[in-house]
Design a protein that fits this description.
By secondary structure, the chain is α+β, with helices and mostly antiparallel strands. It has 9 helices and 4 strands. The chain has a 4-stranded antiparallel beta sheet with strand order 2-3-1-4.
């Protein structure tokens, strides 16, 4: 018994479609229109814009926040913010631009201050299209050091002046009280009168305890007793007046003592502020002020490359989007059907 096997046709892969010249030409035209042309146009525009700009002169320095700014990052951050505000403020701008051809707006537009990370260093720079940027930066840094160092000293000086005035006013009040009563130191005179009275009282007691053998001596003793008694009466009245005067002057004298203590404290604070001012009025530099001229050629080339690259990137994205939107929708499904058959 023989078994015959029928020959079935074997599926052969369909030949790959030959590339057509028209397809390449269409893609080339799309690349030229969407990528190359925008890049060339953007580069040309960038060249025209940058080549017409004047050269840039750039001066920079790195300074360190003074010890009085504090050690914590927050305190240094506050100092840097104050530093930048003062650096670009109208007061410093007027000082820097005085007797120069630079306007306040030009100075404020060109000056910059940036903190270096979280450190106490500050990068300060000034750029201009003029001939020289270094003198402007140096003048700004020397002036800002004085402007930022002066307020603490001025506050300490003002506080000392106030306490000195309060002390002088208290002394004037006491002087007026002395002139009214003719008593310089009520406490001292009170103590002296009290000691004199105690001495007379002791003398009177001793006189009363003695015995006098003759009537004449007894008469003299009685007369002396009357004199001492009158003196005691005068002293008692004087002591009462001095005691009342002492109570009246006590608040004035306490006010003088307090005013003197505050004056001495403010004098010490002023001395410390003067010492700190001498330290802070000169900035410390990590990098000394330096100047360089930015090459217009390098800047122009960088601008052209950046503009052309951006335009080419945008054009390439548009090209991919166009190809995605224009490709046949049923190609993938037809290919899958043929493979299953």
């Amino acid at each position: 018994m023989s078994i015959s096997v029928k020959n079935k046709p074997v599926a052969r892969p369909s030949p790959a479609p030959r590339p057509q010249i028209g397809t390449y030409l269409r893609r080339s035209r799309a690349v030229i229109l969407l990528v190359v042309v925008p890049a060339v146009v953007a580069g040309a525009v960038a060249y025209l814009l940058l080549s017409s700009q004047p050269r840039q002169v750039f001066a920079s320095a790195t300074v360190v926040a003074p010890d009085s700014a504090g050690n914590s990052p927050g305190a240094i951050g506050l100092y840097v913010a104050d530093f930048e505000q003062t650096l670009r403020g109208d007061a410093l701008a007027s000082i820097v631009t005085a007797d120069t051809d630079i306007s306040v707006g030009e100075y404020q537009a060109g000056i910059r201050a940036v903190r270096v990370g979280q450190s106490s260093a500050i990068d300060v720079s000034y750029s201009t299209t003029g001939d020289d940027a270094l003198p402007v930066l140096e003048r700004a840094l020397s002036s800002i050091a004085l402007l930022m160092a002066e307020p603490p000293l001025e506050r300490a000086q003002q506080r000392f002046d106030e306490t000195q005035a309060e002390y002088e006013a208290a002394k004037v009040e006491l002087r007026s009280a002395v002139e009214e009563t003719n008593v310089l130191n009520a406490d001292a005179e009170y103590q002296a009168a009290k000691a004199r009275r105690d001495s007379l009282a002791l003398e009177l007691a001793q006189l009363g305890a003695r015995e006098f053998p003759t009537p004449l001596q007894a008469q003299e003793a009685r007369q002396q007793h009357e004199v001492i008694t009158d003196q005691l009466a005068v002293l008692d009245e004087q002591i009462s007046e001095l005691l009342a005067l002492s109570f009246t002057r006590q608040p004035i004298e306490e006010e003088i003592d307090y005013a003197l203590a505050f004056r001495n404290d403010s004098r010490r604070d002023l001395s410390a502020a003067q010492t700190q001012y001498e330290r802070d009025r000169i900035l410390r530099f990590l990098e000394e002020p330096d100047q360089r001229t930015l090459s217009s050629t390098v800047r122009t080339v960088q601008g052209i490359v950046a503009a052309a690259s951006l335009a080419a990137l945008i054009g390439f994205g548009l090209l991919l989007l166009t190809q995605y939107l224009t490709r046949p929708r049923g190609t993938a499904a037809q290919g899958l059907t043929r493979a299953q058959t």
